[in-house]
Amino acid sequence: MRPPLTPAVERWRQRIKRRSRPRFRGLSFNRLIPNLMTLVGLCAGLTAIRFALMERWEAAAIAIVAAAVIDGLDGRIARLLKGTSRFGAEFDSLADFLCFGVAPAIVLYLWTLSSWGGLGWAPCLMYAVCAALRLARFNVAIDGAPAPAYAYNFFTGVPAPAAAGLALFPLFLFLQAEVHGVALLAEIAQFPALSAAVLLAVAALMVSTLPTWSFKNFKVPHEYVLPLLLGAGLYVALLVSEPWAALAAAGLIYAGLIPFGVRSYRRLKAQAEMPGTAEDEPGRLAP
Predict the structure, then answer these.
(1) Are the beta carbons of 164 and 48 closer than 8 angstroms?
(2) Crossing angle of the two packed helices 103-111 and 160-167, in degrees rounded to 10
(3) Torsional sign, CA 211, 154, 44, 99
(4) Is 265 helix (H, G, I), strand (E, B) or coil?
(5) How many angstroms separate the CA atoms of 125 and 129, rounded?
(6) Which of 36, 72, 169, 235 has the largest count of CB atoms under 10 Å?
(7) pLDDT tens-digit profile of 115-150?
């Protein structure tokens, strides 16, 4: 049998063993994935501005749409990977301001509103300022008192990514007309007054107190599942064949859903405030 090691030799062996297996301190890579996605979305928004400066309107619109898709995924992935953090929330808001507050305004200004000079810049400023105010209000609400259960599935005002899609409606319409050579429609879509009116209307919707569906925990009744799936399939087919028409239609559909969201919110609020009745499930589709 081997003789037992002396205490000095044993301490030396333990020290060598610890050095041979170093431990790295820091965040898990999984927790960095959402922030990396936010960074990619931020780069997409900056690239949209670059494409607009080069008068590549189609590429600029694609970059903003890509940023919106990434923004819709990074938060959900963060919750799935348990990688939510205060830094991530602030970083996401800063990226949203640039991608959906600054980039659409600059794209529309360079595309059509620049022909009005300083007057055309005013709606762009108003839109960007309202986007900043809307995101600031959202960040303050995170640290505020928890909202009632019936308000869980609602935003206050139109969120920034949806606002960018609504603001770019004239550009989507123009690109669709260009694809099919409809000169009259393209001329109407590029008229500066249309873009100015859309920007101002969307700016007002962002800072409004209208409740809009957030689709975080949206519950669909069983009888609506099949029609919803069929509608989604038809929309994907339209998106593949006519992407600009599909994006323009998405803006119209979202705008048309706003009154229904307001009605659903008021119905859920009335049920929750009614004495002696149970609060309705948050997010359930209103009949």
Answers:
(1) no
(2) 10
(3) positive
(4) helix
(5) 6
(6) 169
(7) 998 899 999 999 999 999 999 988 887 776 677 777
Q: What share of the chain is helix, strand, coil (3-state, %, to 5)?
A: 75, 5, 20
Mean pLDDT over 247-270 rounds to: 90
Q: Which of 38, 203, 189, 165 is nearest to 112 (CA)?
A: 189
First-to-last alpha carbon distance for the chain, in angstroms, is 83
Q: CA 266 to CA 146: how far, in whole Å?
A: 18
- Using alpha carbons only, give the angle 234, 158, 233 rounded to the nearest 5 degrees: 10
Please say whether the beta carbons of 260 and 224 come within 8 A.
no
Question: What pTM was computed for the model?
Answer: 0.83
Q: Residue 22 in contact with residue 40, Cβ under 8 Å? A: no
Q: Can you give the pLDDT at residue 280?
A: 45
Contacts of 75 (CB under 8 A, 6+ apart): 34, 92
Beta bridge partners of residue 211, listed in sequence order:
156
CA distances from 106 to 52, 84, 167, 240 (A): 8, 31, 11, 27
- For every residue of 162-210, DSSP letters joined together read HHHHHHTHHHHHHHHHHHHT-HHHHHHHT-HHHHHHHHHHHHHHHHS--
| 158 SS3 class | coil
Q: Residue 148 is encoded by which pair of tokens?
A: 């009632």
- Name residue 219's beta-bridge partners: 284
CA distance 283 to 154: 8
Banded pLDDT at 281 (limits 50, 70, 90): very low
